[in-house]
Every structure is written in C-alpha cells, then in structure tokens.
Amino acid sequence: MKTVYSDRHRHQDGQSELIDGKLMKCFECPERADLVLARVRDRAIGDVLDPTEHGLDPVRRVHTPAFVDFLSTAWDEWVAAHGEYDALPITWPTRGLRHDRVPDAIDGKLSYFSLDAGTPITAGTWSAITAAADVALTGVDLVLGGEQHAFSLCRPPGHHASADVYGGYCFFNNAAIAAQAFRDRGAGRVAVLDVDYHHGNGTQAIFYDRADVVFASIHGHPQQEYPFFLGYDDETGTGEGDGANLNLPLHHGSGWEVYGPALDRACDFVAGHRPDVLVVSLGVDTYKDDPISQFRLEHEHYLRMGERIAALGLPTLVVFEGGYAVAEIGVNAVNVLEGMAG
C-alpha cells in the first residue's frame, strides 16, 4: 500500500489549547505523523510518496469561499492585532446571538468560524492544511489510477471541520475533500467510514442531505464526549440524504467485544449502499491508553479492523485523523494498514 506524506505538517505546532481549565501544549503535535511514517517505513508497508499540488478548487468544493479566505489570512490579521501568540477564539455566536454577520475584527472572525478553544491557528497553519489537502487528493489520484488501497497520512486531521467551521484540531476536512473529489472524477457513490474515537461531525454536516456520499461513524457517545452536539443515533440524514447517515455511539470503556459488532454493522451499512469507493477516516484514539479518549482497544484489534474493512472489497483511501497515545500511534495505524493488506 502506498503512503502519501508531506513534511509540511510540521508547520502546524500549536502551543496552546484549553483543557481542564488550563492552557496546555496541544496533544495534536508533529510527532504524531512522524511516528506513523517511521512505522510505515520500518514495516515496509509500501512506497512513500510526496503529494502533488491540486490547488484550492477541490477544497472549495467542500468549504465555503469565505471560510477558505478566512483561514488564508487569519494568522496575519492576528499578528497585526495581537502579536505572535497562538490565535484562539474568545466567544461564540450562541443561541440568541446573530449568525448572519461576520465581524471585521480578527477576534470576532475566530469566534464566528470556530467550534472550540482547542484548535490554535499558528504561523504555519495555512501551509500545513493546504499540504494535508494535497496529501488526501494525491491519495485519490492513486486509487483512481488503479491502487486498491492507499494511505493519505494527513496532518492536521480534518473530520471535525464542516463547510465553514474549524475545531477539534481540524481546519480543512481532508476526508470530505477526498470523497467529493471521487464524486467529481466519476464515482457514482462514495462511502465514508469514520473509526476515530470522536464523531466526525464535520463530515456528517457536509454530506447530511446527500445520498451520493454516505457516512457511517463509530464513536464515543456525544452525551459523554466531544463534540457533544452531533453523533446521536437518531441522526440518519435529511432530504435526499435520509437513510444515508449511520451513527453508532458507544459508551466509555467499550472494548472490542462492543466495538467489533459495531464495526460489522457499519460495514454492512456501507455495503448496503453499494458505493464505488470507500474513504476511511482513520483515528486510532480508540486505543486503551489514549490520553483524551475512553475506549479500550488493544494493538491486535487494529489488525482485525483492517481485515474487516478490506473484506468490503472496495477501492479504499485511508485518511489519517486522530490518535494521541504518541508512543503507540504508529503501531496501531500501521496494524490497520497491514490488516487491510492481508
């Protein structure tokens, strides 16, 4: 299986996120992708390729022009107003406030376009997120070029980003960009399977009213876990997308005895929609020792996960998402890839 990787991911190195009432260095750090890449090479999974440039047009197929423009200038606007500290929002347009006006002040823009106070914009954010989109799109190129499976080692992750909102360490939704690119380049129907610990609220929101991109997610229950306000099992799609969305929320402490049957159900859902291609949002924060998650998967379960996904028999692009047990992240991610390879 070929891997696509860009070292520009290192340009995003946030020093500040708000956790437990404290500003801390981000769990989402450059070491994550570097350790996955090292394990890919150590275990000889396949060639590692640089991404090719695809421009912003495929990004704008998923994200609004205003949102893309905001991200492209946010750091410069922040520095002009406040200096070179991580840019974080301070308020949000909650119930009773207006949503139809984007403020001129950068503090207002950050608040308007953001989901949380844990996703800093830094000097290197724009470079990293445009590279991550190219990594995902180069994976699309590989699969459309005949590869049965490919791995886009994206960082920062993307599945919490919606059409015009960033958060959860995510800016551009790499998996959604890839899914839309598959559609634009001839796939009749695309499935996205999200196995990250946290619900892919951004991906769901982007495709919720569509039947041509179906979405299935296994994740921590939103009554207990971020992002809290999407991911319930009664969210099944709307309009043309009615029935094309499956959420399988699981409670704290879930191990393979619970997760495995949920994965079977998600894969059956995918198969039932007869997609031409599959995009997997791969987060390995389901691991038992992940510092910000509460599932109990072991190393060997990621091999079984890969085997189950491969059993669908679909051309598949794996897009990297979360996973914060840094010492173990490469083992678990590559176990999925090896399981897929058989």
UniProtKB/TrEMBL annotation:
Cofactor(s) recorded in Swiss-Prot or TrEMBL: Zn(2+)
Family classification: Belongs to the histone deacetylase family.
InterPro entries, A to Z: HDACs (IPR000286), His_deacetylse_dom (IPR023801), His_deacetylse_dom_sf (IPR037138), Ureohydrolase_dom_sf (IPR023696)
GO function terms (MF aspect): histone deacetylase activity; hydrolase activity; metal ion binding
Keyword field: Hydrolase, Metal-binding, Zinc
Protein name according to UniProt: Unannotated protein
Gene3D superfamilies: Histone deacetylase domain
GO BP annotation list: epigenetic regulation of gene expression
Domain called Histone deacetylase: residue spans: 28-338
